[in-house]
Known about the structure:
Blueprint: E1 3-10, E2 13-20, E3 31-35, H1 48-59, E4 63-67, H2 85-96, E5 103-108, H3 110-122, E6 130-134, E7 154-159, H4 167-174, E8 182-184, H5 195-208
Parallel strand pairs: 3-4, 3-5, 5-6, 6-7, 7-8
Antiparallel strand pairs: 1-2, 2-4
Amino acid sequence: MNSSVFTVHGPAGDLQAVLELPASAAQPLGTVVIAHPHPLFGGTMDNKVVRTLARAWLQCGWRAVRFNFRGVGASAGAHDEGRGEADDLLAVAGQAVAPGQALALAGFSFGACMAAQAIARLHPQRPIAAAVLVGLAAARFAAPPIPQDLQARTLIVHGERDDTAPLAAVMDWARPQLLPVTVVPGGGHFFHGQLPLLKALAERHVRGCA
């Protein structure tokens, strides 16, 4: 797979991003933008769950874009406690994905909440082909409900024993929406030893949304 570093002009300054292309010579099916976990707790675009999600989409023939939120790595600005980070994600989606190209969104932990915010704001403007939200930190950050017509194209994955983002909070978030949650038995927040399973779940979902 080919990869290249590029820059996105974000609302708080330039954002560092990486574009990966699928190994297949065929035309990519679209582009997924993946948001990383909390910047103040070591979250970057190189997080292993973020990379796992990227590999799942690449395997399905999609381009994958990972990026660093403001204040992380080579990205300008400072952490904004979840207020400006959704704007960062929207900037990446707007500049890295052409208007006529299929767009998907994904995120892990803090990044899953930012992806949910971006979905709510983008939904009225352009189609979202698929979404995968992993370890949604619903107890700590705002996560709007998923629009009803996107729910079948949204996969929620959570570890049964997640002590960082409690499963109960995610169920409280999902219950009013009647939104299914895929629970990984024994899984923790970072899915230690279960990343192949996470990748397989994401691949199955992405292929099902084609």
